[in-house]
Amino acid sequence: MKLGDEARQLIGSAPATLVTVNRDGSPQISVVWMVVESTPDGDDELVSAHLGEHLKIRNIRRDSRVAVTIVSTDDSGIQPPYLSIKGTARVEEGGAPELLSEIATRIAGPHTGFPPAGSPPGYLNRITIERVGGFGPWASSPHWCSGQFRRPTRVRVWRASLNARFIAAGTNLTAWPVATSRLGVAVSSRSCSSRCDWA
Q1: Which of 119, 141, 163 is the last residue of a domain?
Q2: What CATH number corresponds to the domain at position 57?
Q3: Are 126 and 137 part of one and the same domain?
Q4: What is the pLDDT of residues 86-109, one digit of tens each?
Q5: Using H for helix, E for strand and C for coil, what is the string for the chain?
Q6: pLDDT digits (tens, 9 = 90+) for 35-79
Q7: Rounded to the nearest 5°, which phi and psi values hold at 57?
Q8: 55 φ/ψ angles, rounded to the nearest 5 degrees
Q9: Do both 112 and 19 map to the same domain?
Q10: How many domains is the chain partitioned into structurally?
């Protein structure tokens, strides 16, 4: 599967949550850095590097099903964008120090000293992408538009009710997003394009 530009840019900009399957069927969760690489067939795959044969590596050898989530550092909205990927993984021997050095240099600059000299060759975890979802331009979420929430119908109804209460109390209506957020209603005061169903 080929990823869109927005998804490719997100990968590597923040740590990823990798979920593998334990022997008893329970999820094993870890946080790793990933990069996206192109395959000879022109598809994209996710790659992470590991110096040791950790539980995640042993799990993948036994059960190749994995899930990955990467949350954007963009906090301009109430819900940050996130990329969700399901796929199958395979373990490749060697190559871990080189990829980890590349990632460390990109994050912290040159001469990080990581991984340490003499590190074992380790393993690469290569993930074939089978399904893409989440919340962002890469997903078909009904509440995504130009990086912000659409306002769900129930919120529009609550807003009408709250507006009436604000008027009765003499409250400035421009404060309604703050007031509703205090009541646990997920809304945003940011504008959105005409494609969005704002009330």
Answers
A1: 141
A2: 2.30.110.10
A3: yes
A4: 999 999 999 999 999 999 999 888
A5: CCCCHHHHHHECCECEEEEEECCCCCEEEEEECCEEEECCCCCEEEEEEECCCCHHHHHHHHCCEEEEEEECCCCCCCCCCEEEEEEEEEEEECCHHHHHHHHHHHHHCCCCCCCCCCCCCCEEEEEEEEEEEEECCCCCCCCEECCEECCCHHHHHHHHHHHHHHHHHCCCHHHHHHHHHHCCCCCCCCCCCCCCCCC
A6: 999 999 999 999 999 999 999 999 999 999 999 999 999 888 888
A7: -70, -45
A8: -60, -40
A9: yes
A10: 2
Percent of the chain past pLDDT 90, that is, above it, reads: 60
Residues in the chain: 199
Amino acid identity, position 181: S
Q: Which domain holds residue 178?
A: 144-199
- Whether 82 and 42 share a structural domain: yes
Q: What b/e string do you get for 5-30 counting C-beta neighbours within 10 Å, with b at 16 or more?
A: eebbebbbebebebbbbeeeeeebee
- Shared domain for 154 and 114, answered yes or no, is no
If asked whether residues 14 and 98 sit together in one domain, one would say yes
- Is the pTM higher than 0.85? The answer reads no
